[in-house]
Structure formats: structure tokens, C-alpha cells
Amino acid sequence: MANQTLPAYKADFLKAALEGGVLKFGTFELKSKRISPYFFNTGEFYSGKLVKALSAAYAHTIADAHASGLLDFDLLFGPAYKGIPLVATATLALSQLEGGKYDDVVYAFDRKEAKDHGEGGNFVGAPIKGKKVLIIDDVVSAGTAKREAIDKIRSEGGVVAGIVIALDRQETLPSSDGDAGGDRPSAIGALRKEYGIPIISVLTLDDILAGVKGLISEGDIKRVEEYRAKYRASD
Ligand SMILES: O=P(O)(O)OC[C@H]1O[C@H](OP(=O)(O)OP(=O)(O)O)[C@H](O)[C@@H]1O
Ligand SMILES: O=C(O)c1cc(=O)[nH]c(=O)[nH]1
């Protein structure tokens, strides 16, 4: 059974991620080139059961942040490609919460390459102009893809209200003079500071370590704890 210190939707999401092989333990090279003892791949959420757990977890996270006044939005935006199924399923799961309170929330996504025939253009879904836009994506590594998404939304006349991701790894970006960890901010912290927007996650690395006891080996837990101690971000 997952650890009871996490809210039920987080514990269910973590359990589904472990059972579905989305959250893996071993040796992985990150986009940043850092070697990590764990990896979280939302591209592996491809069964109905996993999509249900993933979309419900996004919907709960968004609704909680909305209820606490942290987020206000009327359009969800999923950056191509992996953001596309995430935004469509999160919109559905959100509309299934709280008796239709979110039924009028709409979604849109972009194309990586503009379409030059048919309806043409770079965007699919609801018009972005004048909307409060919440970006839905999987992870932040360097923040480059999120900066691109923010630029695209702004150039369409939308106002970026925040970003929701599946996992905050809570780690520093590697420094240019070696990768010794240290007291530095995360890529998420840098984005928050740059744009002044809320960035929230369904799970954090702290949540994973609080919830996996008894579900994975003690050796894997120790390696992830050591990694967290070495690379923990200052924000
Ligand atoms: O910190 P960031 O710069 O935002 O990078 C992280 C993003 O990069 C990858 O997507 P990618 O942009 O490669 O597109 P994909 O969804 O087509 O894999 C990954 O899935 C994240 O969404
Ligand atoms: O930093 C990355 O490249 C990365 C880490 C992670 O846990 N999941 C992912 O999709 N990318």
C-alpha cells in the first residue's frame, strides 16, 4: 500500500506510475547530461488505466490550486507533442470534477511545424486570444520548451496563467564548471522568477520519497536520497 502521508490522488498516481513502469529506478542520463538514479516518462502512460490515473491527478492538482486562489484560467494549452494527450485528457478529467464546474474550460495545442493547407496555421483547438492560459506538460528540464510555449501563447494574444507538470525533480541545473550540485535554483525556480507565474506539479521528488517506502527496494531509495541530497535546488 502506498504511504498515507500523501493525499489519495497523489498516492494513486504514484502507484500507477510504478506499476505502469512510468517511474523507473536504475541509471539514466537526463537531457541535462546528469546521471540520475530514477526517471519519470509520461510517454509510458498509454493504457486506459494509466491515462485515467494521470488525467485525474492533473485535474485534482489544477482544481486544488484553483480553489486556493493560486491559479485562474479558462484555457488549457498542451505543447506538442507530449503535451497534446495530456491537455485533452486533463480537460476531460477536470470537467468530470465538482458537478460540471469546469465544463466551460477549453483546450488548445500547437503544431511543431505550421500546416500550409486545409485550415492551416500553428494552433489547433480553442482560440487563445484574450484567454487566461494554463500550460499542461510533462516535465521541466532546462525550461526551453516552456519558454517557447509562453512566447507562442503571448504572440496569439493569450495571457499565461501558470504551468502544471507531472513531476518537479526539485534539482539544480548543472553548472557550466562541473556538476557538483550546490546551493543553486532549479530550472523551475528560474522560470518562476523570469515570468512571475505559478508552476505547480502533481508530484515532487519529496512526494516520491515519502510514498515509495515498501514499494521499491531499500537500495533504490538510498540512491535517490543521496541524489536528492547532492543536487537539491535552493528553491
Ligand atoms: O525543460 P524543457 O526545455 O521544457 O524541456 C522538457 C521538455 O522537453 C521534452 O519535450 P520536447 O520539447 O522534446 O517535445 P516532445 O513533447 O515532442 O518530446 C520533454 O518531454 C519536456 O516536455
Ligand atoms: O531531465 C530529463 O530529461 C527528464 C527527467 C525525467 O524524469 N523525465 C523526463 O521525461 N525527462
Outline the structure in words.
It is a single chain. The mean pLDDT is 92. The chain has a six-stranded mixed beta sheet with strand order 5-4-3-6-7-8, sandwiched between helices. The chain has seven helices and eight strands; from the N terminus they run αββαβαβββαβαβαα. A hairpin with a 5-residue loop joins β4 and β5. Helix content is 37%, strand content 23%. The protein is an alpha/beta fold and 235 residues long. 37% of the residues are buried. α1 packs antiparallel against α2 and α2 packs across α3. The site of 1-O-pyrophosphono-5-O-phosphono-alpha-D-ribofuranose has 14 residues, from α4.
Write the layout of secondary structure elements.
Elements: H1 8-19, E1 23-29, E2 35-40, H2 48-67, E3 75-78, H3 83-95, E4 106-115, E5 121-125, E6 132-136, H4 144-155, E7 159-168, H5 187-195, E8 199-204, H6 205-211, H7 218-231
The structure holds 1-O-pyrophosphono-5-O-phosphono-alpha-D-ribofuranose and orotic acid.
Orotic acid binds at residues 30-32, 39-41, 138-139, 141, 169.
